[in-house]
Amino acid sequence: MLQGKKILVGVSGGIAAYKINHLVRLLVKQGAVVKCILTTASSSFVSPLSLSTVSKNEVYTEFWNRETGKWNNHVELGLWADLFIIAPLTANSLAKMVSGLSDNLFITTYLSARCPVIVAPAMDLDMYKHPTTKRNLAQLQEDGVIVMPAATGELASGLEGEGRMQEPEEITNFILNHFISKNKWKGKKVLITAGPTYEAMDPVRFIGNHSTGKMGFAIAETLLSQGAEVVLIAGPTKEMYPEHNQLKLIKVTSAEEMLGAVQQNFHEVDGGIFTAAVADYRPKDVAKQKIKKNEGEMQLTFVKNPDILKWAGENKKSNQWLCGFALETNNAINNAKEKIAKKNLDFIALNTLGDKATGFGYSTNAVIMLDKNNNSVEFELASKQVIAEKIVAYIAKNN
Ligand code: C5P
């Protein structure tokens, strides 16, 4: 499944490094060509000799090979790889990646790599939840690195909690899905709606919501990194918009503008992922001048906004697919299933507000993915980037 894929495995110095022989074996078994880079500290936890044996390749630690006197070219290594997986990622290497402190081959290679980079952090529970670590992981994600969050369980310190490196099998699966998905998206075009809509009351006020567009942007970035063309129709947000030469970005404000942009572009895409939090209603009349306050109560009349996703469902051709999002607070699964039927969808990603770290504004999410044939799969709480990878891989596999 990974036939001929060139995978660079970066190992930093945590106890979980002892599992990397197994990870490399799993990757090689799948047909990947694997090269390993170790930090000096990690060679105390896993021997370069065993890694070079399982990978069938030279292992790189320093800028030069002491035996041959040959320079280890970090730029060549960075350009060689189709994927750079860093496991385990320690707090020290994380901080260096964030700051660009390139005092070893590992970090210089990271800075030279043009391929997707995935990291699997591993550290003690208190280190993992320290604000510095959280801030650094958030920055890494901002820089486009895919973070596989640490698992919960027994830690080397004897403590129990969050901080375990994801198991080699889980990492291999994640990498497999990444490449399966990538093969499917090259040459495809996807329309994404994202962010809130603002519905004007007067020239200076609007009715809006707290959506940031982060989930839709993460999906757009994942698709772009996997070779798809993306039409991103985004409502107002303070988030950074994705940038890419395969991206057509259309900024809109209101639901009616969003509908107009969808209607203009939907016919030329293979499918659509509608993540936008569209206002269901808008003020009936938009005052020409700023509404003045007076002593009494104020009444506004609202009219229904168009259901943009429903329009796409009614107008989709047989070769187009559609994925909606649903945020439900009660009877979630049944409501989501109804929505699939009512809006003629192929998939729906359901996020319930039950978990505090999901939904609007958070960098994390957890979803249940449902399809029109009543299949479902749960993606547990993870960064929006990881959830985006999983959603995109699921759609690639199932459409
Ligand atoms: O019906 P509900 O608003 O719960 O459906 C949510 C899904 O429909 C989301 O995918 C959202 O982007 C889309 N939607 C839309 N236009 C609306 C309302 C929702 O495209 N007016």
Using brief descriptors, characterize the structure shown.
Rossmann fold, six-stranded parallel beta sheet, binds cytidine-5'-monophosphate, 399 residues, 20 strands, single chain, alpha/beta
Question: Can you describe what's shown?
Answer:
The structure is a single chain. This protein is an alpha/beta fold and 399 residues long. The protein has 13 helices and 20 strands. It folds into two domains: 6-182, 3-Layer(aba) Sandwich (Rossmann fold), CATH 3.40.50; 185-288 and 297-398, Rossmann fold. An eight-stranded mixed beta sheet has the order 13-12-9-14-17-18-19-20, with helices on both faces. Helix 4 (91-99) crosses helix 7 and helix 8 (168-185) packs across helix 13 (384-398). The relative contact order is 0.10. The model has no long low-confidence stretch (mean pLDDT 92).
Set down the secondary structure blueprint:
Layout: E1 6-11, H1 20-29, E2 33-38, H2 48-55, E3 59-60, H3 74-80, E4 83-89, H4 91-99, H5 105-112, E5 117-121, H6 125-129, H7 131-142, E6 146-147, E7 151-154, E8 160-164, H8 168-185, E9 189-194, E10 199-200, E11 206-207, H9 214-225, E12 229-234, E13 247-251, H10 255-265, E14 271-274, E15 281-283, E16 302-304, H11 308-315, E17 321-328, H12 332-342, E18 347-352, E19 364-371, E20 376-383, H13 384-398
Parallel strand pairs: 1-2, 1-4, 2-3, 4-5, 5-6, 9-12, 9-14, 12-13, 14-17, 17-18
Antiparallel strand pairs: 7-8, 10-11, 15-16, 18-19, 19-20
Cytidine-5'-monophosphate binds next to helix 11 and strand 17.
